[in-house]
Amino acid sequence: MPDRPFPIDDAVLARWMKLEVSKINEGLVAVRVPLSSLREETTPIIPTKDGKHYKFNKKTLTTLGSMLPRTLQEKLRLPVFCYFDSAVGDSCFVTDPYAVEVLQQLHEISNQREMVDGRLWIGKPIIYGIMRKYPTFLQIVMR
Fold it and tell me: Is 2 a domain residue?
């Protein structure tokens, strides 16, 4: 019957989505680097998984360096990975406790917020605001 929708196998769709997500994630950095090291570089660039380069915003690094204690600059690895889960439409999560501490010190999230099961969920509008305010600080990871 031509009026019936074409049946799609859920397993096929899931495999296709996984392939597309992996393509998106190829732009992620291969290795995250401490803020303190990035600040010392004239042109802070690190390789991505697909062999290209991720260039950090020098002004963002300078701003973060002026606002954070040296010990935290040595512990914080950039970019911070922010995980988007397709099952959760309005939030994403961070798994790095030093990133959470930095976001609290920058007053981007409340000091009352705590990680649960190794994750801190943050609303997408807040994440987008942080990305505008501190370009190259965060990198989105699709799940």
Answer: no
Query: Which value, in Å, is the radius of gyration of the alpha carbons in the chain?
Result: 18
Q: How far apart are CA 46 and CA 29, in angstroms?
A: 7
pTM, rounded to two decimals: 0.84
Instruction: Determine phi and psi for 34, rounding to 5 degrees.
Output: -60, 145
Detail the DSSP E strand segments found in 23-137: 33-34, 45-47, 53-55, 77-78, 80-84, 91-94, 120-123
Number of domains in the chain: 1
* Partner residues linked to 77 by β-bridges: 34
pLDDT in tens, 47-103: 999 999 999 999 999 999 999 999 999 999 999 999 998 888 899 999 999 999 999
Query: Does residue 5 belong to any structural domain of this protein?
Result: no
The amino acid at 114: E
